[in-house]
């Protein structure tokens, strides 16, 4: 049953959750003159993965991934910039060196967005947990770590169990504890403007590391069958697929020759995690090993024998709804007009994808409040194709998906993959600008 039309015309929207999607949605609503009641349960209550009191906390990596147009998530960032994403503007402001990727100082990024939201005249912030789905126009953006009470509310509303998977995050270590007499700075193939720190291994060192990794003690996962999303596979689980698996994944040495020009057998990379440059994130090292085991195995890596770990890797349960059974391409619940689900709870996967869902739901809710037609975003854009996938994928096989060019209509007659992707990117940005110019965006 839908909301009362008078409620939808009240020019007031409740947003539940101040993560990336909730913050983007709130700012999109507010700049269109809509009054926003933004609820967030921090600082009184935090999920197992959150440590900061501020909004839009990046609980996993500090990287928003590639910034290049021939990469789908790079194109999605470009689309968000064209569309006036508030969160993407702040991410660009607080970027740190990361080669061809966009990485940010996670603390400065989060604090600035919190200040931006709290000072906005159209946004009222309420620090309390929401345990019931609002009966007003609302966007639920409580994230993949949604509280138990809200998860049960969603189950009751949708008439089915929420789906779930387990996510893992990587350790962060201090720069001062890295032995730069062994480690060296280099980007893969010397591409990009920021340098990663590389810890090289010879074959014998890798063999010892590998055996320790696959036999290390992990933290027991209780109560739920473990279902891991491929994009966040714990390194120890990946390693168990075969001794060579890591050499074609996060420890791939190709393009990372040492200063002596010798190619290592394996390389562990670290990426700058803050603007000061004193913290580094272990790339691809998501893990749910027990903390003492993490320290022991990390310190086996050449250059990290004295590693000071300031944040250990952890594993946590992420939930998402079966979106094709529930949501439209504006992230609105079909059977409950005026109620939207955004962010990773909706079934998108990744920081940038979550921001995009917040932007789409925020703009759509604002237009509904203002009694303006709501239009889907162009299917030739990643942002539009992602929303369309969420709404129309096969329900029985649905699982979170990152941005990818496979979502877009093909371009025929071009053999070069890179050229084809660039043509898709050009078409996307052109179509988005045209879509905005004809009045679908205000």
Residue stretches low in confidence (pLDDT < 50, at least 5 long) are: none
Give the % helix. 25-40%
Count every helix, treating DSSP H or I runs of 4 or more residues as helices.
Answer: 13
In one word, what is the shape? globular
- How is the largest sheet built, in terms of strand order? 10-11-12-13-9-14
Question: Which CATH class of the largest domain?
Answer: Alpha Beta
Largest sheet: 6 strands, antiparallel
User: What's the structural domain tally?
Assistant: 2
Q: Give helix and strand order, one letter per element, not per position.
A: HEHEEHHEEHEEHEEEEHHEEHEEHEHHH
How much strand? 5-15%
Task: Decide which structural class fits the backbone.
Answer: alpha/beta
Description of the molecule:
The chain has two domains: 5-167 and 318-440, 3-Layer(bba) Sandwich (FAD/NAD(P)-binding domain); 172-313, Elongation Factor Tu (Ef-tu), domain 3, CATH 2.40.30. Helix 2 runs parallel beside helix 11 (351-369) and helix 3 (72-82) packs parallel to helix 11 (351-369). The strands form four sheets. It has a six-stranded antiparallel sheet with strand order 10-11-12-13-9-14. The protein has a five-stranded parallel sheet with strand order 6-2-1-7-16, with helices on one face. Strand 4 (95-96) and strand 5 (101-104) form a beta hairpin. It has 13 helices and 16 strands. It has 442 residues and is α/β, with parallel strands linked by helices.
């Amino acid at each position: 049953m839908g909301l009362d039309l008078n409620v939808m015309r009240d020019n007031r929207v409740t947003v539940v959750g101040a993560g990336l999607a909730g913050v983007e949605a709130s700012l999109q609503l507010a700049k269109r003159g809509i009054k926003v009641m933004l609820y967030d349960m921090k600082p009184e209550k935090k999920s197992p993965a959150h440590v900061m009191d501020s909004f839009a906390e990046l609980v996993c990596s500090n990287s928003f991934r590639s910034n290049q147009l021939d990469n789908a998530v790079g194109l999605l960032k470009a689309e968000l910039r064209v569309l006036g994403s508030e969160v993407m503007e702040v991410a660009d402001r607080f970027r740190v060196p990361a080669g061809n990727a966009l990485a940010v100082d996670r603390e400065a990024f989060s604090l600035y967005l919190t200040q931006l939201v709290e000072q906005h005249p159209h946004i009222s912030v309420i620090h309390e947990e929401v345990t019931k789905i609002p009966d007003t126009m609302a966007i639920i953006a409580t994230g993949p770590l949604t509280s138990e009470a809200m998860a049960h509310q969603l189950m009751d509303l949708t008439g089915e169990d929420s789906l779930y998977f387990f996510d893992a995050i990587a350790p962060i270590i201090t720069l001062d504890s890295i032995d730069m007499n062994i480690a060296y700075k280099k980007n893969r193939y010397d591409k990009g403007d920021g340098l990663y720190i590389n810890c090289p291994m010879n074959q014998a060192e890798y063999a010892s590391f590998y055996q320790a990794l696959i036999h290390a003690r992990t933290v027991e996962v209780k109560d739920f069958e473990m279902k891991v999303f491929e994009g966040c596979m714990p390194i120890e689980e990946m390693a168990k697929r075969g001794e060579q698996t890591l050499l074609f994944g996060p420890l791939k040495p190709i393009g990372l020759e040492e200063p002596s020009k010798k190619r290592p057998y394996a390389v562990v990379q670290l990426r700058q995690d803050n603007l000061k440059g004193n913290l580094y994130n272990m790339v691809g090292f998501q893990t749910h090993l027990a903390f003492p085991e993490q320290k022991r195995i990390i310190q086996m890596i050449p250059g990290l024998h004295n590693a000071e770990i300031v944040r250990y890797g952890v594993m946590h349960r992420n939930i998402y709804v079966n979106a094709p059974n529930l949501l439209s391409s504006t992230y609105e619940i079909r059977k409950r007009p005026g109620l939207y689900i955004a962010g990773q709870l909706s079934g998108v996967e990744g920081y940038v994808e979550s921001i995009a869902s917040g932007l789409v739901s925020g703009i759509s809710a604002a237009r509904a409040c203002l009694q303006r037609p709501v239009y889907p975003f162009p299917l030739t854009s990643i942002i539009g194709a992602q929303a369309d996938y969420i709404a129309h994928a096969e329900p029985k096989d649905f699982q979170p998906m990152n941005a990818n060019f496979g979502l877009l209509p093909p371009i025929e007659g071009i053999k070069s993959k890179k050229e084809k992707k660039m043509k898709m990117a050009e078409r996307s940005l052109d179509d988005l600008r045209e879509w905005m110019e004809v009045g679908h965006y205000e």
